Amino acid sequence: MILKNAKIICEEEVISNGWIEIKDNKIVKITAGHTDQRGYDLQQAIIMPGFIDCHVHGGYGEDTEKGTIASFQKFAQALPQEGITKYCQAIINGSDDTLTKILTVYQDYMKNYNKGPQARQIGAHLEGPFISHNFKGAHDETLLQEPNIHLLEKWIEASINNIRIVTYALEEENGTFTKFLLEHQILPSIGHSNSTYDLVAKRVAMGVHHVTHLYNAMSKYDHRQPGVVLAALNFDEILCELISDGIHINPNIINLTYKIKGAKGICLVTDAMLAKGLPDG
């Protein structure tokens, strides 16, 4: 199959007019210029890689808390209209029983339903319950607790190793929880945290290189007592999630963050919940 007369967004360049050849559902050639081969004339439409949303709870009336195969599937089928082709579905904090039940259904979904003409799940993003009381956001404070390896092991087993990211407060543990995440190839992400700059620096040295929704629910930029925000901006190793809707973060701050971190230091996320895609009200 040939897709021609298109503007093509590549990793390191933008081809103003070019064509793409696809064989066996794989892109085998990307070429600048015109071709006389038969194919689909896209009339200067834009072709670009699918977006990856590593932090989204739900949308279109569905979310992880419903904990059903039908809900997971309906959400996955709706996402491509946004240009999202892969994602990590986030789970907010809950009781041990609630999270175990959700993750048990989740592993079934990942094994048997994560395929076909829909966006593909990469794995679960566990946002809580290992977060700070000071920066709990919308999370139920009564369910918060210190990072617990035994409990996480139980949830990893329930999900059959499908937990990919864990957001947690660094100051609530002594480093053993961080080490456990790294040893099990789970991405440790600093979020909902009252951590100091110095503690973030120590965890960066251990291999913590991700921050959950920068600026939201974390210790702020302070010239005398710097916290997570300044550390995230200062360490090149840290990849920062940004909710770029213009509401969670002022657009001027988004522009400044881009000047400091550059494109490779930022990943845009929606952090959306089930109301996304529904009409007002």
Word description of this protein:
- It is a single chain.
- With 281 residues, this protein is α/β, with parallel strands linked by helices.
- It is 26% helix and 27% strand.
- It has helices at residues 69-78, 96-112, 149-159, 176-183, 197-206, 228-234, 251-261; strands at 2-9, 14-23, 26-32, 40-41, 46-47, 51-56, 58-59, 62-63, 84-92, 120-127, 163-168, 187-190, 210-211, 239-243, 266-269.
- Strands 1, 2, 3, 4 and 5 form a 5-stranded mixed beta sheet that branches. The protein has a 5-stranded parallel beta sheet with strand order 6-9-10-11-12, covered by helices on one side. A 3-stranded parallel beta sheet has the order 13-14-15, covered by helices on one side.
- β2 (14-23) and β3 (26-32) form a beta hairpin.
- The longest helix is centred in the middle third of the chain and has 17 residues, at 96-112.
- It is globular.
Annotate the secondary structure layout.
Elements: E1 2-9, E2 14-23, E3 26-32, E4 40-41, E5 46-47, E6 51-56, E7 58-59, E8 62-63, H1 69-78, E9 84-92, H2 96-112, E10 120-127, H3 149-159, E11 163-168, H4 176-183, E12 187-190, H5 197-206, E13 210-211, H6 228-234, E14 239-243, H7 251-261, E15 266-269
Parallel strand pairs: 1-4, 1-5, 6-9, 9-10, 10-11, 11-12, 13-14, 14-15
Antiparallel strand pairs: 1-2, 2-3, 7-8
